[in-house]
């Protein structure tokens, strides 16, 4: 697992981003690997939907069960979307990740317990530091992707308006031991370039057309989150409607 974790970290190259098509089960993870994906990332929202639940309401048992099945099914590194940590301590979280076979994790800073919005940045940094310390003690350099929810928590989802707070949190999270930061909702190449230039560290963004512009802006990771799942389910519904309406070639 140490080698897999190191490989995952090496794939985070500013200017040559790791492209992640987020999976939710064994079938989707295997398709990502077959398509040439260099790593598999799960999506908590997609995993939850596949279990018939809402995101942040699946529970850690279901999440880690799905994760364990995925890691056993593919031969490339797996990084897990673990929401805000499921209430686990840093040590418990790392133990659960490694037991499930994952070598990376995506941890968000929304306060789902109190519903107060963003968690205090200092408290979140302290939690990330405990996760890093536990991973170091376990001898596996788990790749920590620290999600920053400033944009999605802004009433207008204004990335420019939240840039200073995004930067402040990013610096704190890097100091705590994060390997990459993920201001979810950020996909404007101009703002990506501003952030990567200010930080000089790996940044995870969402896709925009063309992807090459994000690479030129210095992105180190591009992920679609639950987007792949939602696209596939919408297409499934569309074709199901065609078949039910009498089109025998709906799934041909």
From TrEMBL:
SUPFAM superfamilies registered for this protein in UniProt: Phosphoenolpyruvate/pyruvate domain
GO MF annotations, alphabetized: lyase activity
InterPro entries documented for this protein: ICL/PEPM (IPR039556), Pyrv/PenolPyrv_kinase-like_dom (IPR015813), Pyrv_kinase-like_dom_sf (IPR040442)
Keywords per UniProt: Lyase, Pyruvate
A Pfam family reported for this protein in Swiss-Prot or TrEMBL: PEP_mutase
Designated name of the protein: Isocitrate lyase/phosphoenolpyruvate mutase family protein
Gene source species: Trebonia kvetii
Lineage: Bacteria, Bacillati, Actinomycetota, Actinomycetes, Streptosporangiales
């Amino acid at each position: 697992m140490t080698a897999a974790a190191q490989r995952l970290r090496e794939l985070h190259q500013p200017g040559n981003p790791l492209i992640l098509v987020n999976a939710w089960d064994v079938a989707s993870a295997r398709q990502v690997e077959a398509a040439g994906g260099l790593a598999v990332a799960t999506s908590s929202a997609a995993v939850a939907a596949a279990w018939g639940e809402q995101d942040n309401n699946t529970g850690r048992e279901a999440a880690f069960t799905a994760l364990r099945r995925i890691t056993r099914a593919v031969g490339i590194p797996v990084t897990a979307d673990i929401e805000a940590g499921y209430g686990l301590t840093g040590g418990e979280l790392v133990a659960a990740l490694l037991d499930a076979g994952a070598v990376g994790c995506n941890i968000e800073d929304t306060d789902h317990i109190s519903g107060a919005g963003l968690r205090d940045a200092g408290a979140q940094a302290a939690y990330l530091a405990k996760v890093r310390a536990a991973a170091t003690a376990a001898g596996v350099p788990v790749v920590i992707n620290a999600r920053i929810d400033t944009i999605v928590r802004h009433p207008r989802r204004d990335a420019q308006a939240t840039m200073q707070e995004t930067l402040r949190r990013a610096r704190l999270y890097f100091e705590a031991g994060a390997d990459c930061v993920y201001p979810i909702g950020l996909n404007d190449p101009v703002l990506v370039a501003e952030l990567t230039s200010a930080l000089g560290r790996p940044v995870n963004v969402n896709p925009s057309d063309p992807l090459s512009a994000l690479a030129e802006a210095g992105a180190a990771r591009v992920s679609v989150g639950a987007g792949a799942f939602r696209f596939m389910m919408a297409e499934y519904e569309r074709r199901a409607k065609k078949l039910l309406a009498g089109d025998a070639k709906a799934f041909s």
